[in-house]
C-alpha cells in the first residue's frame, strides 16, 4: 500500500505470480493500482494496470516509492505526501502499456498530453505516452502506450500539473523529513541492514494507515485487508515508540470512540471503520492492548488532555473487566478465541494481556488522581487466578476449557488444558511484565517453548499448526511454519533479560527472511521463503520496530545520530541518482 498521509491510500498489486494462486483464493494479474481511496469520497471507481506481468521484483524503497520490475520494463510508483495525486515513472523494455479503467458512463476528454475524466471528484491525467480509448466489458479503458521513458500523473480533484523532476524531489524531501523525526537507534551492535529495515518498517506501517480514520490494515493481502484491532494496537504502539505520535494518536482516538461498553468487534472495514459483523468472533485481548497502548502513549507524551479524551472508553473497559472477573467462578476473563482465532476457551494470552492492561489502567487512574484501589484489587485477583489455573510447574497452558469432574455422586466444573501444550504466544505477556521476565517461572516457560517450537531458527506458533499448509491457506510445504511475530516475541524477551546477542540474532533472522526488507507473516518450514499469501504483515513490522527500539542504547553522543542519518541519506541519494539519470527526468 501507499498513502499520501493526508487523503489518499492505494493498494498496489505487484504482478509477481503466487504459486497455487487459485487454491489460495488469489488471481494472478498484472501489476496495478487498485482501491484508490480518497478521503470522504471513499474508494474511487478506477483501476490502473501495467502490462509487466509476470513481475520478478518488487520493493518498497526508503523514499516511499514502490518499484516493480517485469518482462516489459520497470515502473516506480509514488504518492507524494500531502499532494492529491499518484505519480508513476515508466521505463519500458518493450512497449509498456498503462490501462486506466473508467466507468462506462463517465465522459473523458483527451488532449495532447492530458486527459480529464468528468467524475466526482474530477480526475486530471498527465502523461507523455500515446493515448487510446477502448471499450471492453462495459468499461472504458484509457490505454497509454510507452516505448521510451515516460510518466503518468493521476491527479484527484485538482488540475495543477507538476513537472516529474519536481515531484521526485518534493517526495524525497517530504519523506526524508518524516523519517528524520523518527527516534534514532543508538545501539552500535546492529548492522546497517537492520537500521535501514527499521525505517522501512516505519514507512510500511504509515502507508498501511487510513489517513482519515486512523485505522491500520493488517496486510495489503486481500484476505487481511481489514483493521484487526489487535494488529492495529501493535502498529500504533510501534509508531509512538518511533516518535510518530500524531499517527498513533489518531488511532487511539478512533478506537476509543467506537467502544460499545461491552467489547469491540474483532475487525473493522479498513476504508470506513464499520465493524465486520460477519467476523464477530469474541476476542477480548483488544481490551488490554488498548489500555497498554494508551498508557504507553501517555508515558511518552505526558499528554493529560489525551487521557481526558480516551477516559470515557477506558472507564468502560475497566468496568467490563471488573464485572467479568467478579462474576466468574474462576475469577478470569470470559472465554474467547484470542490471538490465533482458533481455540475457544480461557486463553493465557487474553487473560494475561488484560491483566497487564488492568495494571496500567490503575497507574493511569493514579496519574489522574482517581481512586484506583478497586482496579488494583481485581487486577491482583486476576493475576493470582491465571497463575493458579494456567501454571503447571514447567510452563503455562495456552488454553483451558471447562470440564465436569464427578466425585462421590457430585459434579464440579473445573478447568483442563486443551489442544497443544506448547504455544509461543505465552512469551510476550511474560516479557511485558505479567510476571518478572527474570523469574524462574518465566525462564522455565520460555525455554519449554524454545525446545518444542523452534523451526529453522525461528518459532512456530504451536505444535500441529496447519494454517498455511492444509487449513485455509496452502502456501507452506509443511505444517508448523515459523512466524515472524512469535520469533520477535522471543527477541523481546531476550531484551528483558539482557540477552542482547540473542535478541539481535533474532532480529537478523527476521530481516534475512524478509522480502526486500518487508516482513511476512510466516516462512516456509522447509525452504525458508516468505509465505506469499499474507505478506507483508503489519504486525510483523510493528514487532520489529518495538524490538529494535527496545535494545539498550550505547553512550549517547552526537556520533550515533550522525551515523544513523548518514545511512539513510546515502540510500536516498542512491535512489535519487538512479531516477535522475533516467532520461525522462531531464525532459
From TrEMBL:
This is Glycosyl hydrolase, glucoamylase. SUPFAM superfamilies: Six-hairpin glycosidases. It comes from the Archaea. Keywords: Hydrolase, Membrane, Transmembrane, Transmembrane helix. One of its GO terms (biological process) is carbohydrate metabolic process. The chain crosses the membrane at residues 562-579. One of its GO terms (molecular function) is hydrolase activity, hydrolyzing O-glycosyl compounds. Gene3D superfamilies: 1.50.10.10. Signal peptide: none annotated.
Amino acid at each position: 500500500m501507499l498513502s499520501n498521509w493526508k487523503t489518499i491510500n492505494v493498494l498496489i498489486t505487484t504482478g509477481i505470480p503466487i504459486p497455487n494462486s487459485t487454491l489460495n483464493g488469489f488471481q494472478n494479474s498484472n501489476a496495478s493500482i487498485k482501491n484508490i481511496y480518497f478521503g470522504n469520497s471513499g474508494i474511487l471507481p478506477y483501476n490502473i494496470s501495467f502490462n509487466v506481468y509476470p513481475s520478478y521484483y518488487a520493493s518498497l524503497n526508503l523514499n516511499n516509492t514502490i518499484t516493480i520490475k517485469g518482462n516489459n520494463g520497470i515502473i516506480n510508483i509514488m504518492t507524494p505526501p500531502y499532494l492529491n495525486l499518484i505519480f508513476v515513472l515508466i521505463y519500458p523494455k518493450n512497449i509498456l502499456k498503462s490501462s486506466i479503467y473508467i466507468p462506462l458512463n463517465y465522459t473523458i476528454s483527451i488532449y495532447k498530453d492530458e486527459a480529464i475524466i468528468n467524475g466526482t471528484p474530477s480526475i486530471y491525467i498527465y502523461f507523455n505516452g500515446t493515448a487510446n480509448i477502448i471499450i471492453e466489458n462495459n468499461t472504458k479503458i484509457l490505454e497509454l502506450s510507452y516505448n521510451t521513458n515516460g510518466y503518468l500523473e493521476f491527479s484527484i480533484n485538482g488540475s495543477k500539473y507538476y513537472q516529474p523532476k519536481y515531484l521526485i524531489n518534493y517526495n524525497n524531501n517530504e519523506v526524508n523529513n518524516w523519517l528524520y523525526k523518527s527516534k534514532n537507534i543508538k545501539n552500535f551492535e546492529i548492522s546497517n541492514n537492520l537500521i535501514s529495515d527499521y525505517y522501512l518498517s516505519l514507512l510500511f506501517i504509515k502507508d498501511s494507515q487510513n489517513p482519515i480514520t486512523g485505522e491500520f490494515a493488517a496486510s495489503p493481502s486481500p484476505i487481511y485487508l481489514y483493521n484487526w484491532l489487535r494488529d492495529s494496537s501493535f502498529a500504533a504502539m510501534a509508531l509512538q515508540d518511533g516518535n510518530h505520535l500524531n499517527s498513533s494518536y489518531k488511532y487511539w482516538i478512533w478506537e476509543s470512540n467506537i467502544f460499545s461498553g461491552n467489547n469491540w468487534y474483532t475487525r473493522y472495514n479498513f476504508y470506513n471503520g464499520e465493524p465486520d459483523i460477519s467476523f464477530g468472533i469474541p476476542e477480548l485481548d483488544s481490551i488490554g492492548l488498548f489500555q497498554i497502548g494508551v498508557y504507553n502513549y501517555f508515558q511518552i507524551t505526558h499528554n493529560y488532555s489525551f487521557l481526558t479524551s480516551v477516559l470515557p472508553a477506558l472507564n468502560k473497559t475497566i468496568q467490563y473487566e471488573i464485572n467479568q472477573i467478579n462474576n466468574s467462578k474462576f475469577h478470569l476473563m470470559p472465554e474467547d478465541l484470542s490471538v490465533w482465532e482458533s481455540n475457544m476457551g480461557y486463553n493465557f494470552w487474553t487473560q494475561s494481556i488484560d491483566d497487564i492492561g488492568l495494571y496500567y489502567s490503575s497507574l493511569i487512574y493514579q496519574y489522574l488522581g482517581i481512586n484506583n484501589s478497586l482496579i488494583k484489587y481485581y487486577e491482583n485477583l486476576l493475576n493470582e487466578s491465571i497463575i493458579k489455573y494456567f501454571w503447571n510447574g514447567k510452563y503455562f497452558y495456552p488454553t483451558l476449557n471447562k470440564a465436569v469432574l464427578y466425585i462421590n455422586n457430585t459434579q464440579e466444573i473445573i478447568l483442563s488444558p486443551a489442544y497443544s501444550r506448547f504455544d509461543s504466544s505465552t512469551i510476550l505477556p511474560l516479557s511485558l511484565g505479567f510476571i518478572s521476565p527474570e523469574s524462574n517461572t518465566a525462564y522455565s516457560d520460555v525455554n519449554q517453548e524454545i525446545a518444542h517450537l523452534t523451526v529453522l531458527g525461528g518459532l512456530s506458533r504451536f505444535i500441529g499448526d496447519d494454517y498455511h499448509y492444509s487449513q485455509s491457506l496452502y502456501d507452506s510445504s509443511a505444517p508448523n511454519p515459523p512466524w515472524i511475530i512469535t520469533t520477535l516475541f522471543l527477541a523481546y524477551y531476550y531484551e528483558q533479560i539482557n540477552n542482547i546477542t540473542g535478541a539481535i540474532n533474532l532480529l537478523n533472522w527476521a530481516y534475512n527472511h524478509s522480502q526486500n526488507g518487508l516482513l511476512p507473516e510466516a516462512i516456509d518450514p522447509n525452504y525458508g521463503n516468505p509465505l506469499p499469501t499474507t505478506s507483508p504483515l503489519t504486525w510483523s513490522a510493528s514487532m520489529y520496530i518495538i524490538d529494535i527500539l527496545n535494545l539498550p542504547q550505547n553512550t549517547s553522543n552526537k556520533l550515533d545520530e550522525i551515523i544513523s542519518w548518514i545511512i539513510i541519506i546515502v540510500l536516498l541519494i542512491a535512489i535519487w541518482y538512479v531516477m535522475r539519470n533516467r532520461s525522462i527526468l531531464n525532459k
